[in-house]
Specification:
- With about 300 residues, the chain is α/β, with parallel strands linked by helices.
- It has one domain.
- Helix content is about 45%, strand content about 10%.
- The protein is built from 13 helices and 6 strands.
- Strands 4-3-5-2-1-6 form a 6-stranded mixed β-sheet, sandwiched between helices.
- About 45% of the residues are buried.
């Protein structure tokens, strides 16, 4: 397993800023290879060549000072009449934290170390200690919730610098919509079978071990517009498990797609700003739009 953290981030790591502690995320600024940012950003046109809207593949945490915006992105933020993000209520940090605690808490569920295979026990204990979260809290936290909390340890950047948050802040005077709400998004994890929840936890541990000394490689891939590296995240490691991939990515894209098309068919031009993993690859929203007859062009 590898590259699990970006998948968790693309789902809801931004929701956990208010309820996770532990080791601070890395504050090292990530630079592009040539100095020019090129995050996944697309112009959507109809069969007549008219622009219907834009899609921005976001990342939910960045180090302070990271330069990611381009003139094309700024133009789309200015020209769009509305924005559609994954979770429109992410600005309600305290409410989201309460929702997370409510959904993820089961009293006396048992020691976290008993929920992984023996080879993961030692690194799990080390990771849990670094997190600063008490063993008592983990004993009352469902396995998926523990995986999400631990996924923040050593992560690059801070959710306050997330692209989603920035984009939403630019639409204070315009309409903002969400494909999901926080409870719905967290409910995806809560609905996983315990076997799959344990796979998430073990994947988090393995990713943390594998990424020591190499933090930021996928953030760099996002800034560089390295679609191949980003697409690999959606098909390898734990995402090679068909049930988990369907639950975390494919099923959600299928639910979002008719909403997306409706926004494109309505008057005005929307900016769609969701985790980059949702846009790329054969199951991504860009490919789905192409099949629907739209032209989706990478914009710089």
């Amino acid at each position: 397993m590898h590259s699990l953290k970006p998948i968790l981030a693309s789902v809801c790591i931004l929701l956990l800023a208010a309820c996770s502690g532990g080791e601070p995320a890395s504050d090292d600024i990530i630079h592009t290879d040539d100095g020019e940012p090129n995050p996944p950003f697309y112009e959507i046109t109809n069969s007549f060549g008219g622009v219907e809207g834009w899609m921005l593949g976001t990342i939910h945490a960045l180090p302070d000072g990271t330069q990611w915006r381009t003139s094309s992105i700024d133009d789309a933020i200015r020209d769009a009449d509305r924005v559609v993000v994954e979770v429109v209520d992410l600005r309600s940090g305290s409410d989201i934290a309460e929702t997370f605690r409510d959904i993820s808490t089961t009293p006396n569920i048992g020691p976290l170390v008993d929920r992984v295979n023996p080879e993961f026990a030692e690194p799990l204990m080390e990771l849990a200690e670094i997190s600063g979260i008490s063993s008592e809290q983990f004993n009352n936290t469902e396995t998926w919730g523990a995986a999400l909390l631990l996924a923040r340890v050593g992560a690059v950047g801070e959710p306050r610098n997330g692209v989603d948050r920035y984009v939403l802040s630019r639409f204070d005077d315009r309409r903002a919509f969400g494909f999901e709400v926080a409870r719905m998004q967290l409910g995806i994890f809560d609905g996983l079978a315990e076997e799959d929840q344990r796979a998430l936890l073990e994947g988090t541990i393995e990713e943390w071990n594998a990424s020591r000394g190499n933090h930021g490689h996928l953030t760099r891939a996002w800034l560089n517009g390295d679609d191949a590296a980003l697409e690999a995240v959606t098909t390898t490691g734990i995402m090679a498990d068909p049930e988990l991939r369907d639950a975390l990515l494919v099923d959600r894209n299928n639910k979002w797609f008719p909403i997306l098309v409706k926004h494109l068919e309505d008057s005005g031009k929307p900016l769609i700003a969701v985790g980059a993993a949702h846009l790329i690859g054969p199951d991504g929203l860009a490919a789905m739009l192409e099949e629907q007859g739209y032209t989706v062009r990478r914009a710089e």
